Amino acid sequence: SVIRDHQLLLAIEHELDEPASQRQEEPLEKHQEMREETRRRLLQEHRDALHQMVNHLSQLSAAVNACGNRHGEFNFEVLEAALQTVADAEHTETRSASRILAEGVLAAFCSVRRFMQEVYFCLDTVDPTLCNNPGLVDLLDNLRKSWETGSRFLVDVRVRNAVDSLVDHLRVVRVSSPAFASMCESCDPEFFLVLPRLLMLTFLAAPEKHLELMRLLMPQRFPVIDASAKADRALEKLRKSFNRTQRILEKSGDAWETLVGVSMAEDKLGCSQLAGSQLKEFALELEKWSMELQRHCPQDWNQFSAIITHCIQE
């Protein structure tokens, strides 16, 4: 079924790319209208064929996994989100985090399609026990991982925008801080201590913009499943402490730069006694939350930190 889906997609894509022949006996406006109608029809057929292929890939993955322990149900929303993200970013110079993630999803999907094209000419070489085909197993496993990433960070536009915002902030820090730039380049262990602190700072500086991402990473701090629900009291207390620290620091210099420096354990000798005391207190609070962010679900955090690291380095 997946091979047939791929062949159907190839036929539709060929027709989409092929310039329509103009009928001389028809007026130009009529011809243009017919071309647009044909293109709309083909695009809908292409979408339907993609949807069908994704469904069949889920069935194929289930058959492959029958003798393994992997999971692999593919939601069409992920592919749609990836295609839309790449299309939206087509004319932008910078590569946003969401674009990088979307390209990863599409690359994994295209790899499966290439495999189906190759297999089409040599079906007799495929082992009927599907899990005995290592090439297929590896491709589906890679697709599954990309799909999981897309499902978590691309489908919900609020999460997608929050990830983009976070990576943009981290890229700015990378440019302004040689120490952080060095950590990024070497993936120094210290980088993975600094990263969650910077994430918390970015959230505290603009909580509404990053709310859905934090809800995803720290669900235990958002006990009410409600789009309008705020964080729990402890996180609200941290936000107030951040605001108070920021106001005090603004009296003596660049508050954000100072906070970023503290997140990298830099000494800030130019602070007043009051600011220094408040800064020290906030740094201890920040570290506590940084550790919770990493430890609540280590597997999720490791996945997310790997994604963010990759996006920063692009």
TrEMBL record:
Residues 23-37 have a biased composition (Basic and acidic residues). Residues 17-37 are annotated as: Disordered. It comes from the Eukaryota. This is Uncharacterized protein.
